[in-house]
Amino acid sequence: MHFVDLLLAGARLRSFRRGEALFHMADPSPDMVGIVDGVVDVVLEPGVDGPRLGFVAKAGNWLGAVGMPGMTQRRISAIARRDASVLAVSAHHIETVAMSDPDTWRHVAANIVSHFDNLGQLLHANVHRDNSVRILITLRRLYDFNDGATEFPLTQADLAEMAGLSRNSANRVMRRLVEEGLIETGYGWVRIVDQPRIMNILKRSHLPVWAGCERLEA
User: What is the pLDDT of residues 116-150, one digit of tens each?
Assistant: First the structure.
């Protein structure tokens, strides 16, 4: 059997209402979850600064793999932005699959690396001196780590939070990107219109191009 078939054979379907937590940071890591339907906020909780939106994950994303090796604590919180259905795969089942497929942990490790690539881009965005580049990196993250999705249920305040900007600063950038034909926005949503141009701008800003990553695809 294919690795993903073996993995999903032990999966359990779970449903979450909007605003409900799939898990919280520092929870135990008994499983990893794959988003089947819906949208999930990845929330960072650094301490004194309070929770902060770090990413928005759509169907196809797997969360929670970072804690699988060694059964360590969750690194992030995952909150349903919209009603969501996920497939939960226990660490015990992953270990069982690894007995049949020696590449199992390589697949899990590749998923973990993709999360660290995503984190690397988040950090890059939050320290860049150009506010436009901060927003463009954020849009690129949403696109790259959601299998090329182009539309997201995000407000400009959400994008500002992800990019480490004030709302006013983000709004000025977003208006300019709309005028340039790179994105479209509406009430509670943003759509990427010209991803190739966004990538060309970021290449000129010397952003690393290591976004390619292996996904746990069915």
Answer: 999 999 998 999 999 999 999 999 999 999 999 99
CA distance 50 to 194: 34
Between CA 38 and CA 26 the distance in angstroms is: 24
Q: Residue 190 in 3-state DSSP? A: strand
Which 3 state secondary structure label does DSSP give 8?
Answer: helix
Q: Is residue 143 within 8 Å of residue 212, measured between CB atoms?
A: no
Phi, psi of 64 (to 5 degrees): 95, 0
pLDDT, tens digit, for every residue of 91-120? 999 999 999 888 998 999 999 999 999 999
- Which structure tokens are listed for 84? 């969501």
Angstrom distances, CA of residue 181 to CA of 17, 87, 201, 208: 35, 37, 13, 24
